[in-house]
Structures are given as C-alpha cells and as structure tokens.
C-alpha cells in the first residue's frame, strides 16, 4: 500500500465524478435487470411481459447503496494502489456484487459464458434467482466474496479475521443497519481492541444506514446522529458521516470521506510502523507504551431503494421498507407495472453506458482497477490461492509413555497444548496459524502455548494481567463465541490456519455460524475456480462428563448431532480415547483441507490406553478391536462392548474387567471408535465402513452394548441401515447436576455397574450366575449413592480403579 499523505486531497474533479455516476448507473441498471429480466437486456425493443421472469425474487433496497460504495472503493483502490476487497454484510444484495464484478471483468473471466456483450447480459440477467442459476445472495459463486449473505451478523468479525496477519490489506466491510442489530455484529465493533497496526491490516467499516429492515425501521437510523456518533466513538471508532439523497452531492461527499478514511488508516500505520518500514512486523519503537489507535469508519445515510420507483400504486416505495425486496410486482395481474419497470430501467440511460454490442463503454470500463486489484479478483477473497501448508512438528515427541494399558494417567488437552506450542513456534515466521477461543485457552489446559506467544491485545493493561501484548498468536481475550468463530472463519477464508477451543456445552452458540461455513465449504468444493482452504478445527474440551463442579448448565454434547446433519464429505467428528490418540488426530486435522473437524477431548487426568505407535494405527483406521481388552480371539463373541469417547471408554473397560472376573467363560469383544463417522455406511460417507467391514467388527447378530459420549440416538441414526439390529446405546440422557464425576455417569446409566447389567439382561443363557452378578451391581449402585452422600466424593474403588489383566 502506498504511503498516504496526512494532508487530505481536495475535491475530486467533476469530470471524474460524472463518469463515476455513470458507472453507478450502469451497476444499478444491471442490478434491476438481474432482478426482473428474462430477455431484452438492453431494452432495444419495447418491454413486454414475456421479457420479465415469471417469478421475480431478490432484494433491491440495499443494492443501489452497495453499488454506490463499490464504485467509490474502486476510485480509492486506483488512486492509492490499495490491496482491498469487499465484504457485503447485507449479503442479500446479491445483484450489486454480481453486477460490479461483471462490470470490472472478473465475472466473465471466471464464467466465460457470461460474456461482456448482449448475449452475456441476457445470461447474466436470466441466471439470477432462477432454476439452475445463482442465488439472490452474495454466495460462494460470487467472485470476491468470502461471506455468505444468507444470514446477517458476521461480516465485521469476518473482516477482522481477514485482516489479521495481512499488514498490506484493507477490508472494506459494508454493514447493514438491520444487520447491526444482531448480537454477533454488535459485539464485533470491539474487534478494534485486537487489531495490531503493526502486523495486521486494516478494516474499514461502512455502516449503511438506509433506515429499514423487511417491514420495520432500524434502531440506528432512528436515533439522533449525535447519539450514533457517541455510540461509535464509545466503541473506539472515528466515524465520518455521509448523508443525503442527491447523487451529485453524495458523490463528492463520499469521495472526500473515503480520502479522509484512507489517509487516517495511513497515518495510524505509519505512526506504528514508521514511514517506509521494510518490515511491517517490526514496531517503530517497540519499547514505547502502545497507544490504541482510533480507526476511521464511514456512516453512509442514503435512501433505501435509492433511484428506484418512488411511488407504486399510490404508496411511497423509495426511502421506505417497501423497497426492501422487489419494489414492483410485474405479472399478469399487474400489467400496468410493465411500463413502470421500463421507465425505471430507462432512467439509468443504458444507451449512454453500453455500446451497441452490450459492452460497457471504454471511458467507464477504465474506472475499474486492473488485475488482482479488482475486488472481485483479489486473491484474499479466494484464500486457497494463498494457502501455505503449516510447518508441522513431530507430534510423537509429546507421546505419553504407556507401559501397559491404563498404567498412567494424563490430562489429554494439556499434552495437546505442548504440541500446539510447537506448531506456533514453527509457523511464527509464516504468521499463518492462530489459536482462537472465548477466554478458555488456559481453562482447557492449552496453556503451554503461552510459553512461546502472548494474547494479542490492544486495550490497556495493568499489573497482574497475564500474557497480554500488542502481538500474539492467541486471540482469546473476548468472551464471545460469535466473535472467535467469525475471526477464525475470516482467517481461514483468506488462506490461513487455526483452531477454535471452547467448552463443549457452549459451542452451540455458534450453531448457525457453523451452518453457514459448512454450506460454504459444500458449494465451493463444487466450484473449480475456488481453491480449497484449511479446515475449520473445533476442540471441544470441558466436556459433558467433566462438568461435575459446574453442573447441569454445562452439560450438553449435542453439537455433535448438529454437525452430523451436514453432508458427510464435509464434516469429521473425532473422539480420541486418550492423549496419544488426541495428538495423532490433531496432527491430521491441522494438515487437512476443506473440512469441519470436531474433536472432543478431556482435560482431567484420565487413564491412558495406547502407546503412540498403537494410537497412530488406531486413529488411522478410525475404529478397531482392542485385542488386549478382548478375549474372543479364535471364537465368536458372546457380546460386543463398544465405546466412543474418553469417559465411555473408561467405563466400558471397567465393566469388562468386572465381567471377565465374575464370568470368565464369557467371550467379549471390545471395540473403540475414534472417527465417529466411520459408523455410517460407505455409501453415505466417503470413509465409512462397508457393510462387510461393519459386520466383521460388530457381527450380524450379537448384542452390542455401546457406550457413547453424546446423546444415544445419534449412534442409532448413524447405524440404522446396518444388518445388526441388536444395538443398545448408553450415553448422555439429559440427567445431571453438581455431583461427583462417577455419579454423572450413574445418573445417565453410562457407569460400569449399569453396563454390566445391560450385558446380563441381553444374555439369558448366563442364568443364575448372571442373576447374582446383576444383584451385586445393584448393590454397588446403592453403596455408591450412600457413599457420595456422606463423603462428597466417589468411592475409593472407583477413584483408584486401574485396568489389569483378568487372566
């Protein structure tokens, strides 16, 4: 980015603004054409109803304002040679982004059949919100987009995620005033407390106040300018207001505002970095106390549906909520509107904008930036182009030594933290890896990362703070799951890597954000021009079985059910049983591309089962028999004991030890599942088990007692097509409180004593021997209840239990 002078430029030449107005008219014309027209794209003949789509779907209200913003951003990109791209918060204004990327040439380069001529215009118009075409939102199919417009609220968080570690980038983020009322957007204003003027890029928010949502006014448009100014300044911004409806005045005001904003960004960065600093990662004076900058932003107040029909059927449309979607119904019941639509489109004077062949005239086409400087062609908006593989340490050096199964205990996520520390160190120079989380990095036992990095923090610090610094690879100092998710998504979408660690119960807060990202991955995987990005990695710790001190509110493993709703070629769910398996799984996840990986791991000391070599094999296969825990070698099992998750694994092995002690002739097969989706059929999931492989593990007819980390019905859902119907699943059953760890399992009947009874109930051939053992298990449950009521902790035989060879 060129260095901007502190002195503001004067007004732009009227001739340039006149051409920019024409370019804006061209964008508006294309936008209306996309909404309505099926044919006659240049209106070379009188408009007829047959030229109009039979079903007109889309949003006009935000579109002309976004077209206005786009042409003005093009001007400053060219003037200052900016590396900039555009995030459309009100993403339902799809016609604006599609139309502008078409005008600048990017759209036709990606989609050659949408050519820059009359035939291409016809296809451009027809495809919009049409079967077999494109959606009405700013979608993955739209060049220059990293932000799906289907759900509002995430634009500003995405913008900051994109700006982190991109010191030369400016992200122009257009925020709708309806969007500004959402919780995620409201908290995202505080992202400026985490942006380094030295090592990060800049975000230029443009709050677009057009006054209305679908049928209501917006809050920020109905408060006084002074109150809005105070609000934004209170959030740490320097707002620049641009307000009006007259195009001539607004072009000059917007040009001056953008010059002021770009100059302000330049001053902030020059002050932090030093003019002409060759290394943007080096502060000008690292020993001086940092002063948090007040970044500029723009508040653009323009009419909703600007330049559209002012009155329809006696009702005001422009400047009201009635322009939000389609302002003019044009169909057989409203034939009188055909002429009004034609007048509207002709008001943009298309004959002055396009030549006889339908191509934008050269004096307007030259207003767009060139090459990668075009916002539709900016590489950051197709982040896979910029993606570099992480430099990965050898995770095996952090292996927990396991002389024999269950011999030692370890805190799984604490072990993982040391591996993430090494990943951080190895990628410091590349600056393409970060850890995100809502104030839970230490709580989730990942504190080893703070041995080599800090939390990035631009607000004030005081004595007693830990790990807060102007630069750092951890962003966890804001207690907002929305914010952390949005930051990480923006970081990944622009070609970097990271992970999001969170308490399992509260990851639900970003359910819909996960939805949008998963949909983005699904669609972009089918677009050849979109390059794959690094996977979105969730680490869910502090999970349901380790919340004895927090209780019922912190106990919910249902995010797994939500994730599994998505296409199986996009999502992966891993439940490693111990630390060595967790290391192997996370090494794989950080190397993977274009997935959502959900990893559930414990942070409490738990028995360790597998050596590192065995863990690598087990995790590579994703599911397998544990021979050392089974005794059915050379014969058919009487029962299959399956487990998925660290706590279910512990309880199954404890149950197996009881069964083998009291029923030594019982043949038991123990199966552990790491990759949950392996249970699904290979016909539905690319890496799922074939029916043959599933049957060889679980048999076709033996009873399977399955202890699962989450809600039991998820296992039934994944396996309902399998031949073996004798599946009995124990898991979380929405029972819990503040109690002991083992009592949590008892309340949900996931404990060893109930699992033993399950086996006995399914095997009537055990006869009297089974009956006496079942009575013993019931006695143990009574004893347990009495013991914790008196002592407040679990019985010694539970706390001190270890796996031992029953033979």
- Nearest-integer average pLDDT: 94
Shape: elongated
> What structural class results from the helix and strand content?
alpha/beta
Strand content: 5-15%
What is the strand tally? 22
Task: Pick out the low-confidence regions.
Answer: 1-8, 277-281, 285-289
**Could you give the order of strands across the largest sheet?**
12-9-13-14-16-15
Regarding quaternary structure, what we see is: single chain
| Tally of separate helices | 24
Radius of gyration: 30 Å
Portion in helices: 25-40%
Cα distance spanning the termini: 72 Å
Describe how the helices and strands are arranged.
Layout: H1 14-36, H2 63-80, E1 83-88, H3 94-103, H4 106-110, H5 118-127, H6 155-163, E2 169-176, H7 183-188, E3 202-209, H8 225-234, E4 237-243, H9 247-273, E5 295-301, E6 311-312, E7 315-316, H10 336-346, H11 362-365, E8 409-411, H12 412-426, E9 433-436, E10 455-456, E11 468-469, E12 474-475, H13 481-493, E13 497-503, H14 511-524, E14 536-541, H15 559-564, E15 571-574, H16 579-591, E16 596-600, E17 605-607, H17 612-621, E18 623-625, E19 639-644, H18 646-662, E20 668-673, H19 691-698, E21 703-708, H20 712-719, E22 727-730, H21 741-747, H22 752-762, H23 767-791, H24 796-799
Parallel strand pairs: 1-2, 2-3, 3-5, 4-5, 9-12, 9-13, 10-11, 13-14, 14-16, 15-16, 19-20, 19-21, 21-22
Antiparallel strand pairs: 6-7, 8-17, 18-20
